[in-house]
Amino acid sequence: MTWAPGRITEAWTETPGTRSLVIDIPHWPGHIAGQHVDVRLTAEDGYTAVRSYSIASSSTSKRLEITVDKLADGEVSPYLVDVAEVGDMVEIRGPAGGWFIWRQHAGARAGDGENMRPVQLIGGGSGIVPLMSMIRSHGDAHSAAPFRLLYSVRTPERALFRDELVRRAAEDAPLEVTWNFSRATPAGWPTPPERLDREHVMASVFAPAERAAVYVCGSTPFVETVANWLVDAGYDAADIKTERFGGVVPA
Amino acid sequence: MGLFSSGFSGRRRPDTPGLPPGQYLTESFPVLSAGPTPRVTHEEWQFTIETEDGLQHRWSWDELMALPIADVTTDIHCVTSWSKFGTGWRGVSLDTLFDGIETSAGFTMAYSYGGYTTNVPLADLMGGKAWVAFEFDGKPLEPEHGGPARLLVPHLYFWKSAKWVRGIRMMENDEPGFWEQNGYHMYGDPWREQRYW
Ligand SMILES: Cc1cc2nc3c(=O)[nH]c(=O)nc-3n(C[C@H](O)[C@H](O)[C@H](O)COP(=O)(O)OP(=O)(O)OC[C@H]3O[C@@H](n4cnc5c(N)ncnc54)[C@H](O)[C@@H]3O)c2cc1C
């Protein structure tokens, strides 16, 4: 897989500190929901930096859209969120990843029969991004597979794609969305803010016996914690796929 | 040489020899794994080398600890672009484990608790290039990083250093392991940027 030049054609702020970018690449082959791309930046003197970003857009579109959360002391994310402008070039390698993916069809090809396995998505913070691609793909393809999302964020202001998730949950009958707000809730929310805990996760997800395909994505500590709870609760480890974005493992 | 990204200057570390192309240095130790972290006790842990004629050579935890233990200081390179310099490990060399084992097969499949597999040519495990490691940075290896023990093959991308390693199966032909079936390179040399197919 080689590097391809990509032009930023659209950019907008999702929430304070996060931005979505549409990148146009000649001969982009499309992607499978859950895949990521590598983004390479090159400074004037040839110095380069590479980071991975999940693809946010629906696999039914031929659009490459990423959503980047700024780590204040980071090298690449502040550039993508605050500095890069429409018209700027970045280099892209991908789409990559054949594991943390969801397909509408039970086999690898369209026409292989519909994939009706229930899907449980669990996202923390910007870990929603590849899950959003799955939700968008599921909705846009009118898939009837039962989909559930548990999305944990600190505050309503930091929730990515909030309006779209509310709209899709209303329009897309097999999709259910459950929220966990850990620091502050929206006005009139029935429960006070609380850290995501084992009880909330177990109350929100499909029962282990339903053998849902589980996708957990977020910072490394978030993924480690949630995946351990699921295994403790009787989930088969083989049913759980994880994507760790980074950060330090809890001691 | 890449395409210039306007307004990007980077947080360069002046002159980093030892850094393969497309890698950046990190002080932390990120985690890449496909699923939940398996929890394996020393009591249940076993390590097996299985040759092409079906013979199995097996070590318990205590038997592994009784073998000569090597101190290894090495750079590691993850396919997700981070590298970490001068990491300190303790483990048993694969030369020690293969001592006295008869095989004419050229390839191996390392397999792990939790079902993970990765393929490595035998030549890359021999000659002081690979270990079964159980200590990192002076402490027992944490489960998130592959404890009780992981393979350590630092001259290849780090997904080849199978976490929670349970054994090695000899193969006549090179066959893809877990990440290799899911888009990663069969060999994985960081200096040649063999990340994906
Ligand atoms: C497969 C994959 C998909 C990803 N998809 C996305 C995505 O869709 N959106 C997105 O915003 N990011 C995503 N990431 C994370 C992204 O690749 C970068 O790691 C992130 O943007 C930070 O890069 P940076 O250069 O800004 O920070 P760096 O300069 O790399 O790091 C700055 C500091 O932050 C720490 N750090 C790095 N990552 C994290 C983290 N996630 N949480 C807490 N601390 C961290 C580092 O250890 C370091 O101390 C993904 C990562 C992977 C591996």
Describe the 3D structure.
The complex is a heterodimer of chains A (251) and B (197). Chain A is α/β, with parallel strands linked by helices. Chain A has two domains: 4-96, Translation factors (Elongation Factor Tu (Ef-tu), domain 3, Beta Barrel), CATH 2.40.30; 119-244, Nucleotide-binding domain of ferredoxin-NADP reductase (FNR) module (Rossmann fold, 3-Layer(aba) Sandwich), CATH 3.40.50.80. Chain A is built from five helices and eleven strands, in the order βββββαββαβαβαβαβ. Chain A has helices spanning 77-83, 128-140, 162-171, 198-204, 220-232, and strands at residues 4-15, 18-24, 36-42, 48-54, 64-69, 89-96, 119-124, 147-153, 175-181, 213-218, 240-244. In chain A, the strands form two sheets. Chain A has a six-stranded antiparallel sheet. Chain A has a five-stranded parallel sheet with strand order 9-8-7-10-11, sandwiched between helices. In chain A, strand 1 (4-15) and strand 2 (18-24) form a beta hairpin. Chain B is mainly beta and 197 residues long. Chain B has one domain: Alpha-Beta Complex (Sulfite Oxidase, Chain A, domain 2), CATH 3.90.420.10. Chain B is built from three helices and eleven strands; from the N terminus they run βββαββαββββββα. In chain B, strands 1, 4, 5, 8, 9 and 10 form a six-stranded mixed sheet that branches. A five-stranded mixed sheet of chain B has the order 3-2-11-6-7. In chain B, a hairpin with a 5-residue loop joins strand 2 (46-50) and strand 3 (56-60). The radius of gyration of chain B is 17 Å and the shape is globular. The two termini of chain B are 21 Å apart. The chains are: A alpha/beta (251), B mainly beta (197). The interface between A and B is large, with 47 and 41 residues. Bound molecules: flavin-adenine dinucleotide. Flavin-adenine dinucleotide (FAD) sits between chains A (36, 51-54, 67-69, 71, 73-77, 126, 129, 219, 243, 245-247) and B (26, 28, 80).
